[in-house]
Model the fold of this input.
Amino acid sequence: MASARSSFLAVLAIFVLTFVCSTEARRLKRLSPLSRHASPIDLSKFQVPLSNGSASLPPPVTGLSLKAITLGRGTQNYTCAAGSTDLPVSIGAKADLLDATPLLPLLPSSESQLILNLLPEYLVSFDFATIENSSIPILGKHIFDAARVPTFDLGKLGLLKAKKIASITAPATACKGANGKGNGAVDWLALTDVPGSSGLKEVYRVHTAGGKPPASCGGGPARSINIEYAAQYWFFG
Done:
């Protein structure tokens, strides 16, 4: 029974992403964008996932409220020195932050968070052009600034410059990358604000898919390596 339920949720997750990336969805976006809700979505019933099954991230600071649930789709970026056989060195990430809120009314209320948790493993297999032309609005951008500070720009919702306060490994069952192939899923993270932030205080990166580099640079010339990934990002302020 559990297996059948999991299969159903997986199929539904694929359906949701296929719908919002379809030609018909793009037509609907032009006529009535998903981002224009008839009434605000109540985010208070959603709980940020903190446990990977064996370890947990710290909970949000008391008094903060959930400001946005987003789906990040981009690349984790690494570099290799000439001749190196070491693990590639992380130099940051770059991702679009897709507003997950418009997807919520499409999901059955009793299963909405479970399906939301499945979406990154399917989103990582969608190419960037398809996502940009879909009906999922891009709420913001994630980059690393010139000082390599993780930065999240959510426009009117705020700007978060952050530092990591905790990390746990992704579950062993996490999606390794696009089409299920890759080097593994990057860690789940909890980050808090640093000076330069406005309107946002914390972000959690959870339910990651892909993003890990190969185990070795493998020698050869100096180069950059960009590994595609997807994840949920939960913002608090």
